[in-house]
Amino acid sequence: MTLAEVLSIVEGKLISCDADLGQEVEMACGADLMSDVLAFTHTGTLLMTGLTNPQVVRTAEMAGIVAIVFVRGKLPPPETIALAEEELRTSEKLIHQ
């Protein structure tokens, strides 16, 4: 499944204008504990979380997460978006549900 398909299914709004919507997503993980993300995810995973702090982006980078979907109507603060945009040059994408 591609990020474009995920975006459509969750009726989300793309936060990062530079995201590659053709990026393939192999699996998804819902977690608010970043220790669980590090312990149980694999490269190519889509992360769905209600956490919006910059640590989510740092954890996603370490875990090889391909995109982050912020759930429950939460929007990340500017510092989280700025960090993710910086990391986007490698692999991060942001979607708001």
Q: Tell me the strand percentage band.
A: 15-25%
Average pLDDT level: 88
User: Count the helices. How many?
Assistant: 4
Query: How many β-strand runs?
Result: 5
Point out poorly predicted stretches: none
Radius of gyration, whole Å: 12 Å
Structural class by helix and strand composition: alpha/beta
- Overall helicity: 25-40%
Could you say which overall geometry the principal axes of the C-alpha atoms support?
Answer: globular
* Intertermini distance: 17 Å
Architecture overview:
This protein is an alpha/beta fold. It is 36% helix and 19% strand. The protein is built from four helices and five strands. It has a five-stranded mixed beta sheet with strand order 1-5-4-3-2, with helices on one face. Helix 3 packs parallel to helix 4. The two termini are 17 Å apart. The relative contact order is 0.25.
Keywords:
single chain; 97 residues; 4 helices; 36% helix; 19% strand; globular
Short characterization:
The chain has four helices and five strands, in the order αββαβαβαβ. It has helices spanning 3-9, 34-40, 54-63, 78-88, and strands spanning 13-14, 27-30, 45-49, 67-70, 94-96.
Give me the secondary-structure topology.
Layout: H1 3-9, E1 13-14, E2 27-30, H2 34-40, E3 45-49, H3 54-63, E4 67-70, H4 78-88, E5 94-96
Parallel strand pairs: 2-3, 3-4, 4-5
Antiparallel strand pairs: 1-5
Helix pairs in contact: 3-4
